[in-house]
Amino acid sequence: MKNLLNPFNLSAPFNNSSSGLSGWISKSDKVITINSPVDNLPIGEVELTNEEGYKTLVSKAQEAFPIWKAMPAPKRGEIVRQFGDALRIEKENLGKLVSYEMGKSLQEGYGEVQEMIDICDFAVGLSRQLYGLQMHSERPNHRMFEQWHPLGIVGIISAFNFPVAVWAWNSALSWVCGNVCLWKPSEKTPFSALACQEIFKKVLKKNNLPEGISNVIIGDSDIGKLMASDPNIALVSATGSTRMGKSVAETVGKRLGKSILELGGNNAIIVTEKADLDTAIAPIVFGAVGTAGQRCTTTRRLIVHKSLYKGLLNKLVNAYKQLRIGDPLNENNHVGPLIDSQAVDAYLKTINEAQKQGGNLAYGNEVLKGSEYKSNCYVKPTIIEANIDMPIVKHETFAPILYVFSYETLEEAITIQNNVPQGLSSAIFSMNMQQAEMFLSHAGSDCGIANVNIGTSGAEIGGAFGGEKETGGGRESGSDSWKAYMRRQTCTVNYGNEGSLAQGIKFNL
Asked: Where is the signal peptide (predicted)?
């Protein structure tokens, strides 16, 4: 790995020798240059790891696993606590790197690192709460209970839009559960991942623990396929497109492995006639344009009661005109660039197709040019008046495109919301309790996340994160998501003097 640009002065700087990067093995002649979407300047070069390098890392993880799982869970939690403290020190520098490499606003870059800190705090508490149930046995003088054990190696495949936070959601929980991790970040954002690995490497070294507890592998889709097919990987947690997730699920399923899938989203907000528009407008705008529309929880569809439709549409267009688009490291800007030129092409193609299908362009549809835009990846967030018969509205495009619909009854609005293949995040704005409760009922949202009077983005780490249908059904982060990273064992102890059998069965022996 050759670092060409390090303007962020991380306390754990990149080492110009590939052997100095914890768990990253250079085993390929294929080198790629990573350019920032902010200004198209190179951040550095990385060599993509091949199958030989992959096997080396798996061996390192296997060697580290017995050492790590033998530590009491609260001791593992202490290591995660130290990592959280190290992230606090590096928050500003790492947040800037995330912002520069991915293109999200600086505030969002800081926020992503804060999510890592928060999940570390959550995991520290969890390390003392890996509870199992105790059940009453039907046999006298018997005790029956369940307990949880580590799985082994947890493979983590993450996407470019959250270069570090989603990894932390998985790894922090995996570590306190006693697992070791093998992380394949997106090859579009490897430097943020390598920086995290360097920070954690210091924590491991300070505590005389093997580096193989946490491993980063920089590779393309071939490495992801190796992880999915490898029986040494007990669990594959994959975040990304539905197409990728289906491939992972099929491959892991063939070997009866475990998987957590957090895939596409096509999220909607319903605005009822009982909504407080002053409360609604900011979450709608942020949900639609935050991270330049490159979140799985991005608001892509807005379903508005017909009595408010024209007024809210005008408010939105006015708000969009006030958005400041530009260098995301400038905290005065609201919206940064798309990740690359392919994303820009998808943005333009989708808008064109939506118009062909009968959509009316209300605002946007422009690639921004000029000296203030230092790459060709800046676009105007776009609003399209749509109808439910347009096939394009069921397709997720990772870009700031918002489709707006009108409706007459709440039942109709919920039907529109649920009538897409994805089922991640959803929201309703209403000050009417009956409407809110209907939205949250069994007849309401079919998504894994359902919010009232807040937007579709901004999930907290305390709750389980994930969705249904083509979103994959997996859950990460809070609540009892930790159970996916462990194996359950039911135990029965006979503390009596007789070998009694279940169901009262007896043998005359």
From this structure: none
